[in-house]
Amino acid sequence: MTEQFETLIIGGGLSGLTAAHKxxxxxxxxxxxxxxxxxxxxxxxxxxxxxxxISEIGPxxxxxxxxxxxxxxxxTGLDKECVRAPLINFVRYVCQNGRLCxxxxxxxxxxxxxxxxxxxxxxxxxxxxxxxxQGEPTVAxxxxxxxxxALLPFADAVFTGTYAGDYNELTIDSVMPGIRxxxxxxxxxxxxxxxxxxxxxxxxxxxxxxxxxAMTSFPGGMSRLNERLAEELTPGVDILFNCGVDSIARRDxxxxxxxxxxxxxxRNIILALPVNAALRLLQGxxxxxxxxxxxxxxxxxxxxxxxxxxxxxxxxxxLTPEQEARFTLxxxxxxxxxxxxxxxxxxxxxxxxxxRRHPERLELDDATLTRLALQEAREILNLTGEPTxxxxxxxxxxxxxxxxxYPQLLAWxxxxxxxxxxxxxxxxxxxxxGINDMIKTADRAVAALLNASGTEExxxxxxxxxx
Length: 467
Ligand SMILES: Cc1cc2nc3c(=O)[nH]c(=O)nc-3n(C[C@H](O)[C@H](O)[C@H](O)COP(=O)(O)OP(=O)(O)OC[C@H]3O[C@@H](n4cnc5c(N)ncnc54)[C@H](O)[C@@H]3O)c2cc1C
Prior knowledge:
alpha+beta, FAD/NAD(P)-binding domain, Polyamine Oxidase, Chain A, domain 2, protoporphyrinogen ix oxidase, domain 3, 15 helices, 21 strands, 32% helix, binds flavin-adenine dinucleotide
């Protein structure tokens, strides 16, 4: 049996690294240790640097509209290193009938844009009088019911872009609980949003002008975030690598954690793991979890670089709704987004393939993936000559898919945490899937641990949709 810690953090991805950082900030003497299964920290956040090209194996960036993430950047000094691509300047496109249609970024511009007919626009406004749909509707069913079928390709693009998901499987209660709560409370999302604005105005809150956030990364790519957080830890002391945890058990008010490295004990444990990895460790807990696992969507990225003569349209990139029946899910114009992603005079873009709907495409070999991605890119983009660079990147993890039964899983998790002293749960897929969600949830788990309340109190957030 090894040394007893105050807190063991299981998982050294962004969630675990953030939890360790926050514990150190709020309680410098706290004896903590991260147990990480792999040989490096950072989980799915990984940057690929080769031949002067920088591309991402995992996330490409995060929006700068989350106070907890901004605070983390300030605390680590990373705020001075960030590179930002403001959404207001960087448009996105949806591929419709083989053409790239620019998606305006403000509600007024969206309403005025010739993306859908005036009849369909009036149908959107009839949402004000549309009764809430009962049960746990899928995103597709809910969008069609509330706003009409004309918005379906755009909703599809949004959930392909964020979850690599299938909006016929994701449920609105799981992916947008704040919006769903607004609908149920006010009978209409539009009415709910107007009421909130009106109440804020009446209570004297300064009117928030619609501010567009910026996509944020670092000059050398997203790995910088893990690298900076890992700098605060001494390997072999504060973080143990190649130390996958097999089981956890609580005995005599102490947690016993059995890992590849032996048995570790602590008063508290923070599970900073993707939902399915956490569920495996929580198997023996009472009451049992309502589900054994949730689905995941895996993707593969084909990175293509071109020399002068080829060009990218201005903006972030495009998404492809399923009805377009294309091979790829969408493409990020990486050299537009952040400086230094390609050698001088070159462009680079990253094309995403697979996702929830097409797992079979992940089985294709690299040469076939590259050939098919390139063929499709030539149909849509202005590309001349052969690529000067290509590579295929396969992420370390899948994206948790929040569908039917997920709200019940969260309720079970909340009750378990409340009833089990010293247990805290954060990580990929527990309340959202984005970097900002992870930072927020890890932050909250640490606050609960230090307050020894055991409950991770939070309010359901109303998230905005950005293309
Ligand atoms: C392909 C892809 C693209 C993405 N794009 C974006 C994006 O553009 N913007 C955005 O905001 N978010 C994006 N995300 C989501 C974002 O990357 C995640 O929210 C975040 O990185 C998850 O961090 P985590 O630490 O919770 O989980 P992980 O990164 O999965 O880390 C978990 C860690 O736990 C370790 N582990 C697992 N099991 C055990 C065990 N039994 N014992 C010990 N250790 C264990 C793993 O090795 C891993 O290091 C993307 C995710 C993926 C996969």
